[in-house]
Here is the input.
Amino acid sequence: MKKGMIGKKIGMTQVFDEKGNVIPVTVIEVGPCVVAQKKTVEKDGYNALQLGFMDVKKKHLTKADQGHFEKAGVPMKKHLKEFRLDDCSAEVGSVITVDTFAAGEKVDVTGMTKGRGYSGAVKRWNHHTLCSTHGVGPIHRQVGSMGANSTPSRVYKNKKMAGQYGNERVTVQNLLVVKIDSEKNLIAVKGAIPGAKDGIVFIRDSVKA
Here is the structure.
């Protein structure tokens, strides 16, 4: 990994390119992120930078986190994330801004999807419903057949049924960086990213580009 940062999802909008084509984009507030810890091969076995994002009052952190930031001599931050980078030349206390990325690059964005609670098979897996007439009764949204009766006389593993839907970590790959606003610390990427508005996301250079 060459670069990575922490951001906050602002929402979606659209922009126009030079030819007048409409591009749907997600706006993300990225950084500024402060380097709270630096890990090296000699001391920790690998190279990494721990970044902090979003200022927070000291009383809202645990004593362990307070001591961690005080030892590093950096401001208190609400979110911490470690990125294993090839180049870890940045020192503790240095600030990384959105200028790390550039328009035209491809990035991967990781976030937590919206939690939808306990959902049925129709909503969770996009199953078809039964006909709502002709005596179907109250079962037109139920999961349906569980399998054969005599053989194997059980429900197969991984059968798509009702259950917890959403609230899981998802990564969307190969998103194009359309525009960057250095003054407002904003970055616009083409397409949608996981999570609700104001959700925390992690942005890094694409592994497949």
Observations:
- The mean pLDDT is 92.
- Helices lie at 41-44, 63-72, 121-125.
- The first helix runs from residue 41 to 44.
- The first strand starts at residue 4 and ends at 16.
